[in-house]
Amino acid sequence: MIHKLAESKLLSGYIYGDNHTGEYIYLPGSEIDSHPPVAVYEHDDTREDVSLSAALQIIEKRSLRLVSHPVFGPRTI
Length: 77
Fold this sequence. Notes:
Blueprint: H1 2-11, E1 16-18, E2 23-26, E3 38-43, E4 46-51, H2 52-62, E5 65-66
Antiparallel strand pairs: 1-2, 1-5, 2-3, 3-4
Helix pairs in contact: 1-2
């Protein structure tokens, strides 16, 4: 169930992360309607593209929550 909720939120432009560790996962606005969408995982001052399924696994493994990104705010769209 968590995967479905997180997937829905990501596809709606919401950002998951941890403001204390500087980790964020989100779909850029240009990826919202693409198939398959590619998410961005920001960590350790780097950015990497990850698949939606990998993003969901990272969210669960790292216990990331909905947050406000320092540049984008709470949503990318």
